[in-house]
Amino acid sequence: MINLHDLSLPVAPHHHVGTEQRVSLTLQRGALCWIVGSSGSGKTALLETLALQRPFKGVFRLFDQDITPRTSSRTLTSLRQRIGFLEENPLFCDTLTVCENIALPLEINGVKRSEYLRETSTILSWFQLDLYADRLPASLPLLVRWQLACTRTLIRRPPLLLIEASPLISLPDFRVRLFSVLNDLAQSGSTILLTTNDDSICSDPPASILHLPSNTPSKRDSERDTLSPNLSAPYSDQRREPRLS
Description:
By secondary structure, this protein is an alpha/beta fold.
């Protein structure tokens, strides 16, 4: 599903000697994995690379297809349609209501109006966000916007789901509902990668937890699974385990 080899990620100088570190990552179909690292460690750069939103150096394979700087824009566009990417500061079309924003991916994909309205109503209700359906996104707090963007990302059930998940630290109730959905998606074959700077939110659902290394690791860091050659992370369910090195 995903195979990165010796990928160069930009990082803050206090995390690594120089401004880059090399990362190799293998994730199989149906994998559910957390990447943990502090600010500047390369988490966002990793997700942006997997979402095909930034240039990269190294070997990159996605959906069993080699990705290089010469990959055609048509191929990249086709692959992006199979990827759901939730950023920490998501964008909306602020002239559309919340309901219209969340339904937009289904509408673009040609889903019938009655069906995408039903799907939108269902997902908003499940996450207890239906009171915002007729609001404009710009009028809402950032944490609410992030939750709504999450529903917009999930509604397509993408084969690859990438989530900057640090806001979940402040959203315990939403987190429980989200993890239930993520577990179902992974069981159905979606590959899911979440990033955070706080591993206290990584206990559920069952998933591998891998840590981007610090230039000055603490004693706690030494007890974790971090980026190292040939690392095979522990995995607690029946899905195939990821590797990060």
